[in-house]
Amino acid sequence: QVQLQQWGAGLLKPSETLSLTCAVYGGSFSAYYWSWIRQPPGKGLEWIGEINHGGSTNYNPSLKSRVIISVDTSKNQFSLKLSSVTAADTAVYYCAGLRDGDYGFYYYYYMDVWGKGTTVTVSS
Amino acid sequence: SSELTQDPAVSVALGQTVRITCQGDSLRSYYASWYQQKPGQAPVLVIYGKNNRPSGIPDRFSGSSSGSTASLTITGAQAEDEADYYCNSRDSSGNHLVFGGGTKLTVL
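^ inputs. structure came back:
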């Protein structure tokens, strides 16, 4: 049973860099795309980006210029860095494991394992 | 379009059936996954693929898809089903994930 444990700084000042790490316990590290999702207070979920065990990344176009997701396969960990934060980046940040499947022509993706979330507040 | 659209709020009487929908062009190529989120908790996967339920999810939850619309149906809604529900899929490019805006389900 895969479990995720995440950590990182919870209070940042504007212009600083957000840094979070997520450790993966149990299961196959290479079976997942490792993802970051955030949720501003009172709002919906927003996908930030993903990385596979080989280091290939995809990012939300709206955040791409400020985001770096990296992976350390020796530690079964992956990390998020978001630069030049503002108050708009205040949110609960979740790490999650994404898997895929197909029925021939049709594909599907799903996140069946989630971290507990880290509250990040950006305030001067 | 890379967007998924959900009704902001839906209500259902206790024990009745409710359908929550998600619309988007990418759903013509990808099946949606569905997540339940209760206040202060991380989302929980409830449906993925054609109509698959993870272990531990009650069989009153089911999924379906037609054209550009995916649906989550709860047959015999219970009080504990009151939550926010989000759909999720790849976008039309296949390179990014997108979430619907979420549907707040109230069980009356």
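The two ends of chain A are 40 Å apart (CA to CA). The mean pLDDT of chain A is 96.
thumbs up if we can close this ticket
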